[in-house]
Amino acid sequence: MAKKILIVGGGLAGTIVANGLCRQLRDELGAGGVTITMLGAEPTHIYQPGLLYVPFGHMREAELLREQKSVLDRRVSFHVDPATRVDVDKKAVTTVSGQTHGYDFLVLATGSRIRPDMVPGMAEGAHWFYDLAGARKLRDALQQFQGGRVVINTNAPHKCPVAPLEITFMLRDHLAGRGLLDKSEIVYTYPIGRLHSLEPVANWAVPEFERCGIKSEVFFNTKSVDPQKKTITSEEDTTLEYDLLITIPPHSGQQVITDSGLGNGGWVPTERNTLLREGSSDVFVVGDTTNLPISKAGSTAHFEADTVIDNLVSLIKEDRWARHYDGKVFCFVETGMNSGTYVWFNYATPPNPGPPSQMVHWFKLAYNRLYWLSARGLL
């Protein structure tokens, strides 16, 4: 009987897993010994890191979007039919349409979602770039902005942990390029007592902020936004006035994870080396869906997906484990419109950002163009 691999989620992590399995299980798929099914929420795949560039007019919307079927190997049975319930005891997943899919191996790649609704007034008073509609609105707001105080407000948890720093540095250069820097003030907030959750990154950011004239307010856990008064207030009772508010909204996992009793907040408890759901031997968790204390970022999803591919193939072909995930993460960091740096780290090695350079910025722009090869698992 064919081994059924079911992938829930059609983002980067799930797509890489599906395509990688198709290449490595070519013979098994051809002989009918393995089937691969993906349940996605949308027919379109979006390059999410590219949303950072949309507000500044540095990336066209069409560059961010592809039909999901065009990104997937043709041997993947793809359904736009989101999962509503995952029953790991019965090894079955139920969808919006009422269909039930059984599995031998399950890959949970449901991702995360922005939750501005969790903060009173945020949806009405703030701008963000974490979805296409938000990036469009921020682009319009920046075009109309003629100077004043910009508050860049970071909430936790959130995906792409360096994005708050990137938008801050890029905004500074954008205002300088429009001749508005002398008429503006940039204030960056962060919920803990430093500029970033990773201490080496925070330490690196301090002199960069000083060089750029960027102010900061740490220990700022957002309580509410008042769109009429144009103020944002923290749980620590600090209130900041703003002319433009750009937020990194809080994120949560998907509702199906919570409804299925698989994890609080939509995050699945995950064994950090095997990427198996805790207590399971046939349920893998990949990308933003995990509760692992590492970055929710595209590179994390990619490195985790590679590990899941190798182990699933090895289990199916040889009935043995292949390798462990070491916590590897690699992130480019835009430090302006024409410079960048990068951080890489794993469970054992902390990050160590280097000095910004134009070359690293061009490397990131090159990767933006190569993303679709990455999603296909070719990079």
Question: How would you characterize this protein structure?
Answer:
The protein is of the alpha/beta class and 379 residues long. The chain folds into 2 domains: 3-111 and 254-328, FAD/NAD(P)-binding domain (3-Layer(bba) Sandwich), CATH 3.50.50; 115-251, FAD/NAD(P)-binding domain, CATH 3.50.50. The chain is 30% helix and 25% strand. It is built from 10 helices and 21 strands. It has helices spanning 12-24, 26-30, 68-71, 122-125, 132-144, 163-177, 199-212, 255-259, 298-318, 358-375; strands at 3-8, 34-40, 44-46, 65-67, 77-80, 83-87, 92-95, 100-102, 105-108, 112-114, 148-154, 184-189, 215-217, 222-226, 231-234, 239-241, 244-248, 251-253, 283-285, 329-334, 340-345. A 5-stranded parallel β-sheet has the order 5-2-1-9-19. A 4-stranded parallel β-sheet has the order 13-12-11-17, covered by helices on one side. A 3-stranded antiparallel β-sheet has the order 6-7-8. Helix 1 (12-24) packs parallel to helix 9. The longest helix has 21 residues, at 298-318. The mean pLDDT is 96.
Descriptive terms for the model:
alpha/beta; four-stranded parallel sheet; FAD/NAD(P)-binding domain; 379 residues
Topology:
Layout (H helix, E strand, L loop, with lengths): L2 E6 L3 H13 L1 H5 L3 E7 L3 E3 L18 E3 H4 L5 E4 L2 E5 L4 E4 L4 E3 L2 E4 L3 E3 L7 H4 L6 H13 L3 E7 L8 H15 L6 E6 L9 H14 L2 E3 L4 E5 L4 E4 L4 E3 L2 E5 L2 E3 L1 H5 L23 E3 L12 H21 L10 E6 L5 E6 L12 H18 L4
Parallel strand pairs: 1-2, 1-9, 2-5, 9-19, 11-12, 11-17, 12-13
Antiparallel strand pairs: 3-4, 6-7, 7-8, 10-18, 14-15, 15-16, 20-21
